[in-house]
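Hello,

Our lab assistant flagged a job as stuck in the queue for most of the afternoon. It eventually completed. Since we weren't sure the result was trustworthy after the delay, we are filing this so someone can double-check. Below is the sequence as submitted and the structure that was eventually returned. Let us know if re-running is recommended.
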Amino acid sequence: MKLLNRCIVVSHRYLGIVISLLVIMWFVSGIFMMYAGGMPRVSAQLRQERLADLDLSRVRLTPADAAARVVTEGGRGPGRVQLVSLTDRPVYRIGGATVFADTGDVLDDVSERQARTIVARFLRVPENQVHHVRTLNEIDQWTLQQGRLLPLYKFAVDDDAGTEAYVQASTGEIAMLTTRKARGLAWVSTIPHWFYFTALRDNQPLWLGFVVWTSAAACMLALLGVILSITQLRKVRPFSLAKAIPYSGSMRWHYITGAVFGVFTLTWAFSGLVSMEPWAWTNAESNGIQVRRDVLTGGSPDLSQFAAMDAATWQRLLGGRGIKEVDFARIQDEHYYVVRQTPQSAPIDPRERLHAPYDIVGRAEPDRVLVNAATLAVKSEPFSSDSLVARLKEAVPDAPILASELLSDYDSYYYSRSRTTPLPVLRVKFGDPADTWVYVDPEMSQVLAQIPYWSRVERWAYNGLHSMDFAFWYKQPLWDITMLTLLAGGLASSCLGLVMGVRRMRRAGARVVRSLADAPVTPQPQSALSATNLKPSSGG
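-- returned structure --
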């Protein structure tokens, strides 16, 4: 038993020396992430807000006309079709192509000058304040997730925020927007916490392996510390906690903070490891159902069902409010204009889940209007739950529906701290091998999430353990106080461990130096050649 305990002590000590600096970095960056959020990005709300209002009087082409241009010239199908503004001109976005709605011209690539104009109008600054930095053909630190959008024009803006903007050359859309503050916060939060360094993150296998193995090492370090917090406690009678702790000085405080906060350090390290889904442990969910995207639509939209948009008619229909964008959609076999007006600005809570084992698509849009393409009647009522369930049942006949319920508030798996995902939502539980739950937005007849059993387990293993993601303390300041206290305790224990580790290394180094200095110098015999060379020459 003594040998085992000694092995645990030595393993904890030297593993801590190796990775304690990483653990400290995770604690510090975690505190910043509580308030900084994730990497800089252009939110859908900001993008929509900065779009110019559509001038429908300039729209000459119908969606079908625009799609025909793309199919003829680009050889691509229509896909998603959307009407928006680009430099104050109406354009159709058709898949990855752009067609000007006033002339029918197909956009090849925007020029650097056009991109500068787009940035200036988006940021509402004069063009002479926008300066081209370079054209990216490879990702940089702020476009790690935009590789498929290359090439990108990068611009620097002369404003108080130190803004930098990236424009997609093929579409003219703002792909990324950063400010000096956002970049600085990212460097002390998300980038070190997730190892989002360009050279490492661009090599997916290397990045994944590095995060997995360092997280596993942190788990082992914390687990050994928890074990030692129990085994090292002295048995004294009468029991006194002060006398039971067998250490003094820095070691005593390291023991106390480790005993109190060690379990939380272990759960954080473990949940961080789980979030990477190492060794494909969630692959069992592949046996579950997959609801196709067109199940609730009835198929791709028939663009011929959408007539030319008359500006006066639409102004009366919407009460004179401006239009930011229009989607042309098919929903339950009927065709609709999905009209979005100027959004109400709603700040995103930085505590929103920055990682989740499943996607939740869609967002609450109070300024969205659904207009029937055939009658131009505004649809004010959601689609019925019965119609949604019937379509799901028809699409997945081999998996029985065990239960369906229209939720007026979030549950433990479909939720948003910023309340930015749609409500009410229809939850449908299937009896498939993966025990899948499907969430449907009744206003848009759209599948928002498909969550199999193991993804729900991961939700608790990661979001629950890593960010204390429990609804009962979402409200500030309870969550903030709890998280900051736990993070500060784990940070204190790690810093004390690092200090003691450095001291131990210095002492060990000093002993090595002294041993080398005190070692006797053994005289070496001269070689025959050396002795010969020392004799005076005959000519001397």
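-- support follow-up --
The delay was a queue issue, not a problem with the job. The result is valid. Residues 413 and 456 are 7 Å apart (CA to CA). The chain is about 40% helix and 15% strand.
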